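[User] Once you have settled down, look closely at the record that follows, and write a paragraph about the fold.
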Amino acid sequence: MDKFVQKCPGHPDKREYALPYYLLHNEGDSVYGTVIIFHGFSATTTQMSLLAQYLYENGFNVYQPALCGHYFNKPDQYWPKADFKDDIKKDLVKKLLNDPKLKAYVDNFISISGLPTDYAIGALNCIEKEYPELHEAICDEEYSTAFSKFYKSNHIDYFHEAEQRLKEVESLPGPLMTVGLSMGGAAALSIAATHPDKVARTAVFAPLLKIVNEKNVQFSKLTGPLGAKEKGWYPDMPFSLSLMVAVDIYGHFVRQKKHLDTLAKMPTLIVQTEIDDSADHTVGLRIIKEIEERSGPHGPPHFSTLYTAAERVPHPMVHPLEVSQGSINQFWQSLYQETFRFLTEGTVDINHLHDKNQDLALPRVKDFVANVTVSS
């Protein structure tokens, strides 16, 4: 861990509040095990810091590495992305941007959040007749041969880096468990699914297994390589929409049948929200059903819940101060407690996840943590 954690602070492109860290008990202390925590796409380690601190204070060793490249502040240079293949990109981009209408869609784009569907469809209509094979590639949700004819992607770097972080904690005492939010949820599931001999349990929140609204994904596939950048999330750190395509492809990688077969054999906790504006919760529900069916009546326990639209729980449901869609997760303390219960006992009180009151039988979650300890 030290080699990875210590290389980031001195890097000229380091990103503030995004550095990886660990919280370890003294050697010989009794612990429940080690938890690897992954934050969401484009976010920082601050996003999961309160949960990390809670688990540490109540008997876990905690390692929170940043997602691949997210500890650097130049997304287009360091974060995984999907782009046109090198041998066709220059000529293809030039031809496509010769269309003034399509160029206007690229130049006027600000944010994928709240993007009108008509805007995405309008851009796609610019190429449907003149570039039918490219249009087919863009509409290829399975990322098969049609897509790979035009695109390259290093989305798998998310997996390889998460896998490397897993190797760094193998010598720590107790069972290993993975926890993640959004894209971090996909990372947590992927290393659990590929290393069942090392990971005992996995708990994920709003896992980004498929980006909500396929038209947004298609718009990103087309306009990302043409220069469209997400400018609304971090105005001082815009990034190419090609990065979001890599996220969607990684979610597809995690959803593979062989991974679901493995996840069915270990305890899982999956929490989603009906108003999710980032992760497609309907895909998540289907994955939950498939895992449960594969597990059968005699398999390990699988727990899941869906916050209703009336409960107004946003996609980034872990940090109580992270506002999204004009809301925060009012049940965050119960979420922390049930995560602890799941990681220690392998069970969950689903009803309590929807209750703002804390369970007095579980370690209390502080109302506010002013100073989160970060060891490095």
